[in-house]
Amino acid sequence: MSDIKRFQVSERMSQCVVHGNTVYTAGQVAHSAQGAPVADQTRAILAQIDE
């Protein structure tokens, strides 16, 4: 069984949770690509996560 790892934890939630090979994120928005097509917004969010 995989361990659950939490990052940037607060009383209510974690910004990131890793369980097995899956990463769950919260609160990621594409400020730099606002109004852009969804593909551009997705690239912007994934770049933020990589940072």
Automatic annotation (TrEMBL):
<dbReference type="InterPro" id="IPR035959">
    <property type="entry name" value="RutC-like_sf"/>
</dbReference>
<protein>
    <submittedName>
        <fullName>Uncharacterized protein</fullName>
    </submittedName>
</protein>
